[in-house]
Amino acid sequence: PSAMHDINLKPPPIHFDDIGGQESVKRSLRRAVRLSTESVDVLQKYFEHPPKGFLLYGPPGCSKTMAAQAMATESGLNFFAVKGAELLNMYVGESERAVRRLFQRAREVAPSMIFFDEIDSIAGQRQGFGQKGGGSSTSHGGLNVLTTLLNEMDGFEALQGVVVLAATNRPQALDPALLRPGRFDELIYVSPPDEEARKAIFRGVADKRRMNEDVDIDALARDTDGYSGAEIKGICAVAGVAAYDRYVNAWEDDDTGIMMHDLVYAIQSQKQQIT
Ligand code: ATP
């Protein structure tokens, strides 16, 4: 029992189908899973160094964490997840021990997967003070944790059957040592959703909520260029509240569900917040 309570989180029930678009991300992650259970024989046929570390990078709210969760749900691998910042909120020496223990347990129950979310908080450039986190103790602690992480990742045998996945929205802030061959050598860009993906996200919401027949998903997808998946979910949530208020205040049994104008209004109010 440590500050990290039990690191082996129960995988949240997120599936690849819950993620709109991002087909190439899904393909890369499925390959990563496959690689973790591939025989040495096959690996040697195709790779000098089989990829073992996968880094998801891209702007916030665009399904990096979700993709890792879907991978955990669908792969059947034993899943360990930890947030970078959690590792820093520990006593001196504790975080390093936690990282070593994490890898040890992952190896014991291989095939397995370790997911470091927000890895930039422990793997920022080694130049004293990071932009985030501030204080010198944090930067120093981060450095030791990073060194421990790199040691654990080096050495092929040590990691057989263990996939290491990390996510960041500040790839430029990462210590380059992390990206050297044999470490996080496969970079997976998770882009903002394109029009097709935005349609899929709206459709995903429409499948679960009550949406009026007047909702035009194609138009919504067109009007949300540049929005993240999280922002689109936010728009749907705001529209849901407006529709619920109408339902509550209706004199008659006026259950329209979420209407197009609720969504359009939500998009407009969000645009005003951004600009
Ligand atoms: P951050 O870098 O801020 O941690 P992230 O890229 O890890 O962001 P997630 O946490 O995976 O983003 O996504 C945030 C929320 O946005 C999700 O819980 C989900 O509701 C929604 N979302 C984002 N992208 C998609 C998508 N492609 N399909 C469906 N929902 C999405």
From TrEMBL:
Residue ranges of every copy of the AAA+ ATPase domain listed in the record: 50-194
GO terms, molecular function: ATP binding; ATP hydrolysis activity
**Which UniProt keywords are given for this protein, alphabetically ordered?**
ATP-binding, Hydrolase, Nucleotide-binding
What's the superkingdom here? Answer: Eukaryota
User: Which GO terms of the cellular component aspect does the record hold?
Assistant: cytoplasm
Q: What is this protein called?
A: P-loop containing nucleoside triphosphate hydrolase protein
Which species expresses this protein natively? Bombardia bombarda
